[in-house]
Every structure is written in structure tokens, then in C-alpha cells.
Fold this sequence. Notes:
By secondary structure, this protein is mainly alpha-helical.
Amino acid sequence: MRDRTLWTWHLFAGLVILVFLGLHMVIMHLDATLHVGNPFPGGAVDWANVAARMKSMFFAITYVVLLGAALFHGLYGFRNVLFELNPGGGLRRLVDAGFTLVGLALFVFGAWVALAAPGVAMRMGG
């Protein structure tokens, strides 16, 4: 039952990645092609546009959601690849614990960066 639940979350994370990266591609790179009207005209990496995105809670939240989905999807997929090598029970537990700790640490750090960015942009005058 646990494996089926984790696999379902793995698939759901893949869908989240697909939607959010699709949204990213449209907003950042395909506005001229699709004529959607980029809310940040000019270059995607122009400082004014970067600072505007940093101040936007919409972007901060989407970055955190994308980060969580990508970490889970990637680490769980890599875990499954490693488990296909049929390691012993102790090594399985070590891999599970290691990936969980690394994933949580990366998520906490990345979420902190994404959520601290609006304040940084304000202090930098962006």
C-alpha cells in the first residue's frame, strides 16, 4: 500500500512539474510566439524583470511548489532505480533515510530562498 501511495505522489509530482514548467515556458520564453502578453516585457533576465518577479508572491509560491514536486519526483525516481539493483533491507532503509533528509534539507533551503527573495528585492531597490 505504501509503494502505491508513493507512486501516485510520484505521478502527481510529474504532472505538477509539467504544468508549472509549461507555465514558466509560456511566461518567460514563448510570449512573442504565442502572443500571450508577457507581464514582464523586455528580457526575462533584465534586472527590473527579475526584481519584479522576486517581489511577486505568485512566483515565490510557484517556485516552492515546483521545487517540492521536482525534488520528490527526482529523488523518488532515483530511489526506485537504486532499488532495482535489489539492495539488502539495511541499505534500503539507509537510502530512504538519506534521500528523505537530503530532500527535506534542499526543500527547506530552497523554500527559504524563494520566500526571502521579495524582501531582498525590496532592500535592493528593485
